[in-house]
Specification:
single chain, 10 strands, D-Maltodextrin-Binding Protein, domain 2, about 55% helix, 13 helices, alpha/beta, eight-stranded mixed β-sheet
Length: about 350
Amino acid sequence: MKARRLRLYTRLYLLILLMALLLLLPGMSSAALTIKVASLVPEGSPWHRALIKIAGEWRKISNGQIQLKIYPGGIAGDETDAIRKMRINQIQAAMVTGKGLAYIHPDFYVYQLPFVARSDEELDHLFIRLGPELETLLEDKGFTLLGLSKSGWLRFFTSTEATAPEEIRRLKLFSLEGHTDIDQAMKAMGFQIVPLKANDVFAAMQSGMVEAFAASPLVAASMQWFALAPHMNSFYWSPLTGGLVITNRAWRMIPSDLHSQLLISTKTILEELYEETLEVERQAIDIMEDNGLVIHSVTEDTIEQWRNLVDQGFSMLVGDTISPEIYEQTMAILREYRNR
């Protein structure tokens, strides 16, 4: 009798132990969750430091259950490579530019069309009003937007002084590879486009294959491109936007009760990043000027030439690349904002 009772107790003990292990399995899986994050941003740059800070916050919020493993400086390839790798789960997240977001869904181009948004305030207003709709379009493509960011404004850098459209048309202009629609629009405006991966630009400028590019001063300094294109135009060409994206698959693997905290912490860090970026960019311009950079003032007449050219050239994107509904909604939002 005692032996039978002992066997029964043993079986009950093993059953309870098995149930406890099964209950622990989800937590054990979460603890082992590593999310690989790709980015072109140089190691040590403000954007890279922001990613490290985000990784620390996610680790803290999740009590160590979520680890972000960061691959900076294009280690995982350029943005199109990163997005392809996300689709096959080789990596799960990436910090990309606005062009990278547009590679996922082309309606994101509206944020960075030249002379559409004309100030940080207008861009912030667009993020608020248009953001939820664009985020839904991104989710339909299999990605979740964790946060948008501003990273300054693109300006033209050239190997020789060139400010007017006809002057830059004579130069070979770098374009980030993988954005054929934008390239076609630029070609239609008469520009000599040279599509390349970002990591190939410096060598291309050394060989004379590229003579001009549009970039933020901070990017031009951190990538050392300015050394071979030491003439910078004063006017803003278009905003440099970006965002941190994660695959829907990876996002669903994270406990849903953590989502809100993770999103808030990420967006807060990205907002703080812009203030740091502006300060570092001012320092970068000073350093570049000390090392031969020349900044060329651009007259209002020349800027008007650029506006007219852009109005004609980029209109071909509406309908074929950017949906007319999103474009018209964008312009209506900006008209309303300017008329307040």
